[in-house]
Amino acid sequence: MVLVKEQQLSFWEKLFFWPLLKGLWLTFTLFFRKKVTRLYPEEKLEPFAEIKGHPVLVKRDDGKPRCVACGLCEAACPPRAIYIVGCEIEDPIERAPQIFEVDTSRCIMCGFCEEACPKEAIVMSHEFEFAATDRQDLIFDLKKLLVSEDDVKDRLDYIRKAFDRW
């Protein structure tokens, strides 16, 4: 049989307001420390390369997307937010997306599409704050998704290093 020794409380601990005074003292000491809270709308977060926003398509120097409409990003997307229709073209690439849509209201910004793409055509951008009054405004088509390689250069460098592709 194990005996449990009962702890005796001191006079100050028996008083009800002692823990209250300790809490107020802690609040008082922390009140004058430097604040670490970011005031979000006024102070924007400088995006790091690791931060993932919504997916965008990288365009080549001639203005056409790098995408070859293979459908791997569409298959890798868990919420099925990507819709692609490919078509044959008369370029050395031979295929390109005729329709490429990303429903950002469904996108969970997981980055699986970025990992699945063998051509580094789809990349997660740094834009994660967007709003709309209509759901149709949250469906990004090929024109809204195309960005130059310079705009996402830091993200491309990060994924090349992280995935050790080249």
**CATH class category name of the domain at 55-163:** Alpha Beta
Rounded Rg = 27 Å
CATH topology of the domain at 55-163: the name is Alpha-Beta Plaits
Global mean pLDDT? 88
Question: Main β-sheet, in a few words?
Answer: 3 strands, mixed
Give a short summary of the structure.
The protein has 166 residues and is of the alpha+beta class. It has a domain at 55-163: Alpha-Beta Plaits (2-Layer Sandwich). It has helices at residues 11-14, 18-31, 72-76, 112-116, 142-145, 153-163, and strands spanning 55-58, 82-88, 95-103, 122-124, 139-140, 146-147.
Characteristics:
166 residues; three-stranded antiparallel β-sheet; 6 helices; 6 strands; elongated
Q: What does this protein structure show overall?
A:
The protein has 166 residues and is α+β, with helices and mostly antiparallel strands. The strands form two sheets. The protein has a three-stranded mixed beta sheet with strand order 4-1-6. It has a three-stranded antiparallel beta sheet with strand order 2-3-5. Strand 2 and strand 3 form a beta hairpin. The protein is elongated.
